[in-house]
Every structure is written in structure tokens, then in C-alpha cells.
Design goal:
401 residues; alpha+beta; Adenine-n6-DNA-methyltransferase TaqI, Chain A, domain 2; Helix Hairpins; 3 domains; five-stranded mixed β-sheet; 13 helices; 25 strands; elongated
Length: 401
Amino acid sequence: MAEQAKVPSIRFAGFTDPWEQRKLGEIASFSKGSGYSKADIRESGIPLFLYGRMYTQYETRVDSVDTFAAPRPGTLYSKGTEIVVPASGESAEDIARASAITREGIALGGDLNVVYPQRMVTPLFLAYGLSHGSSQKLLAQKAQGKTIVHIHASDLKGLGIAFPDVTEQQAIGTFFSSLDDLITLHQRKYDKLVIFKKSMLEKMFPKDGESVPEIRFAGFTDPWEQRKLGEVAHFINGRAYSQNELLFSGKYPVLRVGNFYTNDSWYYSDLELEDKNYAYEGDLLYTWSATFGPHIWHGNKVIYHYHIWKVQLEAALEKLFAFQLLERDKERILSDKNGSTMVHITKTGIENTSVLMPCSVEEQRRIGAFFDHLDSIITLHQRKLELLRNIKKSLLDKMFV
């Protein structure tokens, strides 16, 4: 007799019945993909779905593929009503995912578990359910192995699945599918902007061996000049702290490298220091250990830690241009890295780095403002993406048992 499962915390209006709990083996049949691999990919032929796509290009709903292969006897083709689960992967978390194949005639490659749900469960709902919520956690627990983990059909058959009636399943599947489409749209916009910026950096800065860029603002014709960074910028060391000098509360926040990249907890200090030891709104900073690159500080007065430089600029170098210059030339600057356990670049090394820059500060200002505006648009799309992903994650937790 089937068990009754709990209901999710958020449901579409009109649905009140409890979800049913069954073993996947009771409501689905199973097969295995054929032995196609990456080596079989061709320019044309039959459409081919390989298990590696579930790690490099994961989608819950697969409408089409961009890989092809020569047909061979014994190939397992999609019916457009199945889901696939990887049979192997690098970690239990990676392997616990499913995709609904919505198009028939796609060759299903090797190392794929193929699941054919009965009519009481829709493929798209089942794919979302296996990839999130309690079923996903149970699936991850069934993964076996150390270096490479595996999931077998026998593991899937014993997996507990909670599901409502088909009408509610269709509503849930359609909702999350539309949300995924919106996320994909914003991802494409973000990717295009990143590519556009990369292209414009290549065109608005001189290529190696040249002194003028391919694209310039009107009115600027003079060749760019080569200068050492130390001639136009001074990299001021942050202060190193002993453990007892850092507090959990205090007068001044202490900015560490991790605070730029993650939600690292903040430490504080009550020490009164020279003005050079503080970073203020708008200051140009550079992280020179573990993670590298320029930052413009947007926030209140802080003390910056030892692995951060404050960059003081001469009048010949404009701040927003300097930021883009340091970001663009990062790989060349990092070619002079030192250390093994703590990789870093040296103050002497970065100040001796030669760079090309316009003689005109106004041209620098125009270039810096252009890329600063472009960065703002990219950041806006990045935040929209993060917001949509967080909304999706939260709703998946609340709309599945």
C-alpha cells in the first residue's frame, strides 16, 4: 500500500491533496544508454546526447542537442518521454541530477541511466524532483565509489519519490521550465556582454608591438607612451596583524582579501593608524596574494590588510583607466608570481611592469568611463542572474517535498 507523503510549503491554488510516496521502481521502467562516447562526435549525423553534457551544459529540460554521430546498430533512441540520470561522476552531489529528454530520435550515449516513468508521473516533474529536494539528497546518498562514483538502475529503483496528481505536476514542471528559460536568457545576455567587453579591450588598447589602438575616441591621435607602473602609481602595503589585535567588534573594519570575493566574516580594530593605512570610498586597491587584481573600494572607512595594496596615482594616470589597465594586464603581471604555499606578486615586480597608456589624461578618462559603465551593466546582469537562481533554489525547496 502506498504511503502518503507530506505536502510542500508552497502550492498552486486549488491543490490540497497530500502527495503520494512510492518507490521509483514501482512507477517507472529502466534502460541504459548505448556505448557512444566523446570520440564518436561528428560534424553531422544523428543527434547525440552524452552524459558529459549533464556536467558541462546541464539542463533540466533538453529540447535539442548540438552534438552528432554516425548511426550504429543497437542505438537507444529517445522517445521524448524519458529522463536520464548519469551513471558515473566525480562526486555524489554531481551525479544526483536528472534531465527530461523532450524530443524523440536523440541517441542516448553510454554511462546514462534511462528512466521511463508511467503516466502517473510526468518526465519534467520527475527530473526536477530527482535533481532537488529530499529525493536528490537520497539519490546522492546512494552514489558509490571513491575516485569515481556510480549510480546503478538498482539504486534508482529503490529511491522514494513523492508526487501529486498529474495536473499539479504539469503546473510545477511548466513553472520551473519557464523560470529556467528566463535564467538562460539572462545568462546569454551576461555572456554576450562579457565577450563584448573582452573584444573592446582588445580594440581600445594597443596590440603587442603597436603604440595606437584600433578604436579611439574622436580627437585623440597621439601614440600611447610606455611607462613603468612605479613611475605613475605607488603601491602602499597594508598592515599585518597579530591575532590578538583583531576583534569581533571595534571602531574600524579590517578589510581582508576574502571580503572582496565571499561573505567572509569581518574583523575589527581599535588601533589609530597613519592615514595611509586606511581605505576610503573610491580608493583603488589591489589584492596581491592568493587572489589577484584591482578593486575600487565602495564603502566606509576601513583598514586594509597586509595582502592588499592601496594604489596612489600620480596626476599622469587616471583612476578608472588605471583599474582597466591593471585588470587587462593581470596575466602579464602575474607571470612574475613568487612562492609555493602562499603565491604572491611583489611590490617591486608590479612597479617595474611596463605598460602602455595615453599621454592625454582626458583620453584615459574617456576610456575608463566607457569601461566603468560597461562593467556596471555586466554587474547588473550578474546580480539579476544570482537573484533568479536564488529564487529558483528557494522555490524548489518549498515546492517539492
